[in-house]
Amino acid sequence: MAFIVRKKIGERDYYYLNENKRIEGKVKTKTLAYLGKTKKEAEKKAKEFLEKMEKKEFTDDGKQGSLRSPSFAKANEEVSHSHSKAMREKKEEIANLHTEISVEDMAIFCKRRGFVYQSADIYGGFAGFWDFGHLGAELKNNIKKEWWKFHVWERRDIKGIDGSIITHPLVWKASGHVDSFSDVFVVCKKCKKPEKIDRKDLGKVKCPKCGGEFDNENAKEFKLMFKTNVGEKDEAYLRPETAQLIFTNFKSVYENARMKLPFGIAQVGKAFRNEIAPRDFLFRCREFEQMEIEYFIIPNSSCNYEIPEVEILTYSAANQEKDELPVKMKITEALKKGIIKKDWHAYWLATEFSWFVNLGANPNNFRIRQHRKDELAHYSSDCWDLEYKFPFGWKELEGIADRSDYDLSQHQKFSKKDLTVFDENSKKKILPHVICEPSLGVERAFLVFMFDSYFYDDKRENIVLRLHPKIAPIKAAIFPIVKKEDFEKLCESIFDDLKSELNVIYDESGSIGRRYARNDEIGTPYCITVDEESLKNKDATIRERDTKKQIRVKISELKTTLKKLINEEIQFEKAGKLVKT
Ligand code: GAP
Asked: What is the DSSP letter of 151?
């Protein structure tokens, strides 16, 4: 039976449609839908939602509601071969226990908890620029670290580089950015707000904010690259993407890292775009970071990796042109049916999606969308985006384009350097093709993990940020159960033992309940408590954030146990002696 609940988060009210379900003998509350901020709106939305649910009108793209699909377990099973059944079920439960909030409220939460601040807030902020606070910096670094581990360390076919932000201006001439990296900028005649639109939409679209007409006659071309000076007057640009540095270093990496095709080059770093209308918190910034790979192959060669068996909402160009809804299918099936044209493309789409899901993101909030013909760059035969269901709609999270040999041939032409490599099979020199360019913004990934882990727990009456332990800013908080010299000393020695390998904190202020709540809200997966027994038995309790279960573990084994828990090598219940609470 579904029912409406009101939650007070900060100063605001939020309404949700909840349902109680008995799972394994326990009654659990599941949020079915976010209903808005007023009672009236909530009642209306709940009625509509329940009517549609009765008629089974829901689709997985969320257009008709936000029911979580039961196929989660399947998708997740296929994504993470290494996870035990119990861990998988736990992830499923976490995905279901989720609270939807708006992007504005997420920005407020991030500020209040030290994740993200408006840049130069004390001067009134600076549109499109953000600073990461003491927790945000950790989360962002952990996302980048996990991305690098997965894409570079754990693979023999990808090497990483770190190129300069200000590059030779000819790089941007060759890449086409100087001539065509621009947006069309129009102002709404009614609300006077500026808007960036696609050139092809000029004269055809209205203001998305108020529905007003745009002043199309005064539309302006707006260059997106930031200019700067090198020396006294030489003009240069701040890079608008990291990708071009990969192309300019292609031959050096190929030779010095002794790579063989197929292989990739990865890079993580800052990019700058003078966006006309930065918006939606971290979604569209003027300064951001990218995690990019250029994956080079012998032209027309096929993929030599197994494509992960994942299922995802698939929105083909044909679906879009016919105004149809996306369809849930296996990526391998989309390849078989010719929806995805190349096996390499299917491989990278499945791999990128898996990276998110293995780090705790909810697979039901993702889809892949093929670019329509009118969106494709002239050199690209196929392009797909990995999209995420943000509170403001389905949006691009990661672009995964086939760039053919466009960039290498342009740089070869402009630099007059030979960028071909010798192909042992054909015994000819060839110019490799970039079959895929997975390109992901760190800030967008940050938002995904924040939205998917944010949960207001009615019973605890506090937010629980269910971040995967691998990316959680703080891995463990260490508490003395009460302020007492013996306990404090023991806590300090635990802190000293853990600090070199794990980011941990010591917290002694407030009641134990308050300290748990504080750490739940910032996503700390484990709290270690020292009590009277610890002095006698040389052990401590570890409390798990998501289940509130506690185990007792020998102090000498705390570090190894925490590391195994973080890496999902053991189940929490089996990592120590379960405490009855
Ligand atoms: N090298 C290809 C490239 O840069 P893109 O689609 O322009 O392609 C790739 O950008 C990714 O970079 C996007 O999918 C998004 O995640 C991120 N991104 C792009 N512009 C951004 C912005 N203004 N703010 C935050 N992230 C952005």
From this structure: I
